[in-house]
Specification:
162 residues; mainly alpha
């Protein structure tokens, strides 16, 4: 997935440029520029309102002693929405507006979190598998040389300076 990011930074601007030119041919260059500016202004104002709402919900969750995990993720989504809305173009504006509406924003977050959890779980299992293989290799080498096993204890001294 990470290897595809550079391609996206090339393809998305080209597609945006194509859409802006196509819209400009239909409604004219002046109205296209006005429309792009209007979506940015409207988006930034909606972003401010949604940001304040999300902040209020996060503070309410913290006051109740709960961790505002969804609100934190929504804050990240709103920051991404802000960048997309300020970027000139209709496709980025559409994605940015999707991140502004709570239902679509939460659905996107749940989708990403479900995929991230699966990927993290897979990586954790693979790390454990590799560590187990390394330990087995280390154990067999230690048995061959008949050396005692050593733990991961690091001995040392410290002084506390206040």
């Amino acid at each position: 997935m990470i290897r595809n990011w550079p391609i996206l930074f090339i393809i998305i601007p080209l597609v945006e440029l194509y859409v802006i030119i196509a819209v400009g041919e239909e409604i004219g260059a002046f109205w296209t520029v006005i429309l792009v500016l209007m979506t940015a202004v409207i988006g930034v104002n909606l972003l401010r309102i949604q940001g304040m709402s999300t902040l209020a919900r996060a503070q309410k969750s913290m006051a109740q002693g709960a961790v505002p995990a969804m609100e934190m993720m929504e804050g990240i989504a709103l920051a991404i929405a802000g960048v997309l809305l300020i970027t000139p173009g209709f496709i980025t504006d559409t994605i940015g507006f999707l991140c502004l509406f709570p239902l679509s924003r939460q659905a996107i977050i749940r989708y990403i979190m479900a995929r991230a959890t699966v990927q993290t779980s897979f990586n954790a299992r693979m790390d454990g598998f590799q560590a187990k293989q390394q330990n087995e290799h280390h154990d067999s080498a230690a048995q061959k040389t008949k050396q005692p096993k050593h733990g991961r204890t690091i001995e040392g001294e410290y002084t506390r300076e206040d």
